[in-house]
Amino acid sequence: MAKIEDMPDVSLRLLEIFAAMMRCSTTVETAEFLGVSQPAVSAGLRQLESQLGITLFERTGRRLQPTAEARDLFEEIRPLFGLLRSFSTRARDMRSGRVGRLRVIATPPLGYSIGPKALRAFLSDRPNVTVAYDVRRLSNVLEAIETGQADVGLVLNAEKLETVNSEIVQRSQMVVLLPEDDPLAEQGTIAAEDLKGRQIVGIDQASQLGRLVAKGFALGSATYEPQIEVRYCQTAAALVADGMGLTVVDPYSAQPYLQRGLVARPFMPACEIRASVLTRKGVPHSSTLLGFMEAIRAHINT
């Protein structure tokens, strides 16, 4: 039995030339197929035959005919090139973000609006990508990104975030959501003082958006005394849709209710909010993550 060190040292490049030659028959055609010179093909075949100690091709006119030994060897290496094609395809898909796993976490306003739209577009041509998608409070989203439990976070916030990478993808402002037949709906904007004496569904003031609304009322020299207080803007919007007064929420949470007898008007003084994409500091972005972030940017205004 031959020792390992006695085996011919055949490079993958020589096998590639050999396989191409088996399909093309002439060194000119093989050179064109591989994108190399004809002398390089001829030299490669001579080197392979020398290393193996076997005649692989015999010249017949202008063509090289494979020997029986060449045909047998070609059948041996044929699976190898199938594996290489699969390897190349997999690498290309990974480079373009078409395979892999993505972990997304979002706060409710974006998690129930922009997130699903972007995710649908992102997955439309990525059947081999799997996604874990979760919707939590801002503190949970920040913790998940900081600790690497999630790859990307979608948040609506009004305060600067220091512990994560934060890319602002859209700036907007809080709106008053109210019935379309309410007299205030005729106004272009609605000031905090206009809401005096009205039944308000408020946002938990322990949250960023709740604090932002309370600050807006204070700047507008109005008292913020919601009769009902809820945790999420979506809950406030649902209660208003059920005839329980009006509310000041983000435009993403208000959007689904604008075709259900409600309208949204900018709240004054303006309370700016920022839709942001969060990623972990010091961690390179995968192609899959970059593809999803691009989908978010493309759908944030749709």
Q: Which features characterize this protein?
A:
11 helices; disordered N terminus; five-stranded mixed beta sheet; 302 residues; 42% helix; rod-shaped; alpha/beta; six-stranded mixed beta sheet
Give the SSE map.
Layout (H helix, E strand, L loop, with lengths): L11 H13 L2 H8 L3 H15 L4 E4 L2 E4 L1 H28 L3 E8 L1 H4 L2 H10 L4 E8 L2 H10 L4 E6 L7 E9 L1 E5 L10 E2 L8 E4 L4 H12 L8 E3 L2 H9 L4 E4 L1 H4 L7 E7 L3 E8 L7 H13 L3
Parallel strand pairs: 3-4, 3-5, 8-12, 9-10, 9-11
Antiparallel strand pairs: 1-2, 5-13, 6-13, 7-11, 7-12
Helix pairs in contact: 1-2, 1-3, 1-4, 2-3, 6-11
Question: What does the largest sheet look like?
Answer: 6 strands, mixed
Which spans have pLDDT < 50 for at least 5 consecutive residues? 1-5
Biggest β-sheet: strands ordered side by side in the sheet? 8-12-7-11-9-10
The backbone outline, from C-alpha atoms, is rod-shaped
Assembly level: single chain
| Residue share in helix | 40-55%
The chain-level mean pLDDT equals 88
Radius of gyration: 32 Å
The computed structural class is: alpha/beta
The N- and C-terminal alpha carbons lie at a distance of 69 Å
Percent in strands: 15-25%
- From N to C, what is the helix and strand string? HHHEEHEHHEHEEEEEHEHEHEEH
The number of helical runs is 11
According to DSSP, the number of beta strands is 13
Structure description:
This protein has 302 residues and is of the alpha/beta class. It contains 11 helices and 13 strands. The protein has helices at residues 12-24, 27-34, 38-52, 68-95, 108-111, 114-123, 138-147, 208-219, 233-241, 251-254, 287-299, and strands spanning 57-60, 63-66, 99-106, 128-135, 152-157, 165-173, 175-179, 190-191, 200-203, 228-230, 246-249, 262-268, 272-279. A 6-stranded mixed sheet has the order 8-12-7-11-9-10, sandwiched between helices. A 5-stranded mixed sheet has the order 4-3-5-13-6, with helices on both faces. Strands 1-2 form a two-stranded antiparallel ribbon. Strand 1 (57-60) and strand 2 (63-66) form a beta hairpin. Helix 1 (12-24) packs across helix 3 (38-52).
